[in-house]
Amino acid sequence: MDFGTSSEESTDYPDYIIPCAESVAKGEADFGIVICSTGQGSSIAANKVKGVRSALCLTPTFARLARQHNDANVLALPADFISLQDAITTVEVFINTPFEGGRHARRVNKIVDYENRRNS
Fold first, then answer.
1. Which residue among 20, 36, 57, 104 is the active-site one?
2. Given CB 3.0 to 4.6 Å as the disulfide criterion, which of 18, 25, 42, 52 pairs with 76?
3. What is the pTM (predicted TM-score) of this model?
4. What is the mean predicted confidence (pLDDT) over 88-98?
């Protein structure tokens, strides 16, 4: 699913990021990939959606650890700070790396429990 934008004109990234994150939270997509110039705003906006764990990743190692340790389900990329090839590799690593569980599941569950208490 492509949530836009289809223009090079300046846009308000939450208009595109939030629908992407919502589709992940609803289970319509396994993962989301969001992009803005630094990746910061995209990640912040995505993380406002209950059920989303967005990680800003500048390298494949960041992506691998975000999946293995944090069960991240949205990848935020910094368009102005990553090459196209590195972005492609980072996406591939992100979508192909499983969550390790174990002690990491305990930690992620604490975040989810807090989120559920705050958003009920």
1. 36
2. 42
3. 0.94
4. 98
